[in-house]
Design goal:
Layout lengths: L16 E5 L2 E7 L7 E8 L13 E6 L2 H17 L1 H17 L3
Antiparallel strand pairs: 1-2, 2-3, 3-4
């Protein structure tokens, strides 16, 4: 799914990090700016970006801003994906249908 080496957790204090895995989008964000000691990971279904996804479709969990915290966050992502695998795979499969039916 995601290799923690690709996420410079110290960099989360300055910039968020996002990605997707088979319909499950994730968004890593440092908490409380540059003095942060924690970060929060959000998961939500495709197709929309973090800002355009309704809050009720997002799930979040906070972790310590450390190597161990990053291990915990990655394990949580894997667990959440496996727990609701059909939800995420359906979101991936249906993404273009949702986008095409959206009124702009």
């Amino acid at each position: 799914m995601i290799d923690k080496k690709l996420i410079p957790y110290g960099g989360l204090k300055k910039e968020p990090f996002s990605g997707t895995h088979h319909g499950m989008r994730y968004f890593f964000r440092g908490d409380d700016g540059k003095s942060s000691t924690t970060f929060t990971v959000f998961i939500y279904p495709e197709p929309w970006c973090f800002e355009d996804t309704p809050e009720e479709e997002k799930e979040q969990k906070t972790f310590p801003l450390s190597d161990e915290g990053m291990d915990e966050a990655i394990a949580w992502l894997f667990e959440r994906f496996e727990t609701e695998k059909s939800k995420w795979l359906n979101a991936s499969r249906d993404a273009m249908h949702i986008v095409n039916n959206q009124t702009f």
